[in-house]
Amino acid sequence: MEGLKLINIETKPGEVYSYSNTAPELTAYILEKVYQKPFEELVSEFVLEPNTMTQTKFTLNKNDTARLVKGYNDKNELMPNFNRTLWGGISGLHSTTTDLVKYMKLQLDQSNPIVNESHKKLYKEGSDFWEGYHWYIIENNNELIYRHHGGIYGMQNWFVIYPKQNIGISILTNTSFNETGEILEKVVENLYDDIKVK
Fold first, then answer.
1. Looking at residues 145-167, what average pLDDT do you find?
2. Residue 95 to residues 64, 84, 162, 167, 184: CA-CA distances in angstroms?
3. Mean pLDDT, to the nearest integer, of 117-125?
4. What value does the mean pLDDT of the chain take?
5. Rounded distance, CA 136 to CA 147, Å?
6. Which tens digit of pLDDT belongs to each residue from 162-183?
7. pLDDT reading at 159 higher than 70
């Protein structure tokens, strides 16, 4: 918070977009203040419990920790597991592929008001690209595609939602180097093209 006081904001809100890991952390902080509950509790109440995501946790026990996938860098060196230091807005949830599919189904539920709000277009970048609430939104032939890419310490995930086709794709890898994101993006695009053709 002290660091934020040193930032000089030179534009009006909504005029310029710049990616920052600070934004989701501040979102988590704001949610705690508005709802007067810890962020972990809010995530559990509104996301994990209603979608029976019982294998998704902020805090791991000894057995959970033993199951963590090991991540590697571009030199094939083992990377440490990430320990969150703030609210967990950017990272900190640990999950299984089974629960990730449940999360995917949640994001495809267009009747869910929380999902609809999170998919709202907030800032337009170019002719077919929008920023949402921590989603990149692409307009492609009157079709909206929602995607997010993230990774830390030897892990990366490319996560894409295609509501019109009721399809979600997530590609995870336990290696991280400069080109990993581009490779994952291409894999998702090729996989989607294969699925769509059939």
1. 92
2. 10, 15, 22, 20, 19
3. 91
4. 91
5. 5
6. 999 999 999 999 999 989 999 9
7. yes
Q: How far apart are CA 124 and CA 137, in angstroms?
A: 9
pLDDT at residue 185 tops 80: yes
Closest CA to 46 of 117, 124, 94: 117
Q: Which residues, other chains included, contact 141 with Cβ-Cβ below 8 Å and sequence gap of 6+?
A: none
DSSP 156: E
Question: What number is the average pLDDT over the span 76-94?
Answer: 85
The answer to whether residues 155 and 176 touch, using CB atoms and an 8 Å cutoff, is: yes
Q: How many Cβ atoms from other residues are within 10 Å of residue 69's Cβ?
A: 11
* pTM of the predicted protein model: 0.88
The string of DSSP codes covering 28-76 is HHHHHHHHTS-HHHHHIIIIITTTT-TT-BSS--HHHHHTPPPEE-TT-
Looking at residue 61, its amino acid is N
- Domains annotated on the chain, with CATH: 70-197 (3.40.710.10)
Q: Which residues contact 86 (CB under 8 A, 6 or more apart)?
A: 25, 28
The owner of tokens 């809100």 is 13
Confidence band of 198 (pLDDT split at 50, 70, 90)? low
- Tell me the H-state helices in the chain: 2-5, 22-35, 39-43, 62-66, 97-107, 113-118, 180-197
